Amino acid sequence: MEILFYDEVEDWQMSELNLACFDHPYSREQVEERIDKDDRVPDWGGELYAKEGEKLLGCVGVIYPKVRTKEGVRKAAGIRNVCTRPSESGKGVAKHLLERLHDIIEERGVRYSLLLTSAFLIAHNLYMRMGYRDIHKPTVGYKKVEDGSSRVRFEKEKNFDYVHSAYSESVDGLYGLVEREEDFGRAAEVRGVPDNDLLRIAYDENDERIGYIRFAEKRKHLVCDEIAVEKPADLSRIFEALEGETDGRDIVVKFVNPNYRDFLENYGFRLFDDLWEVIMFKDLENDMEESLDRLGVGDRFHVGIYEGY
């Protein structure tokens, strides 16, 4: 089994593997576009491939997001796209790839490694054996839609500078994957997620911006995956406006910002985090407890929608 970089494999090989694992084709051109437009992607592409003969057996990827700790902002390794061809499952392909990737991460002086995954996956057990630990599950809130009215209106705008500013204010005092890159909107356009078309800027009756929200109607429910306001008092105005506009039965808030938990509960949302989705963590210097404390794991840990991967 060889372990190769992205520019050592063919597009058709990448597409077959990605169609098996992620349900979409892939190419070296796409990797190069991400290198060019997403500052978190290393210049070598951040992808390793296991190959035997003409067939790719699996792949693993990494980006380098910023993580906020109690000691300041640090560069972390964000493990992504762990994939094994179905016919090669259980043969140690992913383990070999991850071991090689950990070596590269350590060679570049990065200590913290994060995995955004699902505890439902068989691979979750592999990650545990390799020293990763579950540290966070995102909180979800939901409530029935009630009659609402507000003079707040929503405009479909990709004002990334404003979103960056409002978001940064909203995560004050939090730790984890909350440091938003300056080019976050461009990086999302290249990757295709999160969908920038879901962004709405909220204006009050004086045409002043008061915050933003990302939402979409799904299965007769309104689903919001990020909200930020300049003044906490404006949260109620935004939700009143949503309730006045939607024909949905419920409002769902995903990836609840810990700074907004009290408001949401007081507004009538029921919150829970008993989900399959999980954030895993490994300290490559093997000082797990101290590192978890630095990361503020617990009530002050958060992952922003654009900071996830």
Main β-sheet: number of strands, strand sense, barrel status?
7 strands, mixed
Number of helices: 9
Give the structural class. Answer: alpha+beta
User: What is the CATH topology descriptor of the largest domain?
Assistant: Aminopeptidase
Domains (count): 2
Any idea of the CATH class of the largest domain?
Alpha Beta
Q: Encode the helix/strand succession as letters.
A: EHHEEEEEHEHEEEHEHEEEHEHEEHE
**Average residue-wise pLDDT:** 95
Distance between the termini: 28 Å
Query: Low-confidence stretches at least 5 residues in length (pLDDT < 50)?
Result: none
Record the strand order, biggest sheet: 1-2-3-6-7-17-8
Assign the CATH superfamily of the largest domain.
Gcn5-related N-acetyltransferase (GNAT)
Name the CATH architecture of the largest domain. Answer: 3-Layer(aba) Sandwich
Portion of residues in beta strands equals 25-35%
Domain N-acetyltransferase: 1-161
Protein name: N-acetyltransferase domain-containing protein
GO molecular function: acyltransferase activity, transferring groups other than amino-acyl groups
InterPro entries: Acyl_CoA_acyltransferase, GNAT_dom
Q: Which characteristics define this entry?
A:
alpha+beta; Aminopeptidase; 7-stranded mixed beta sheet; 18 strands
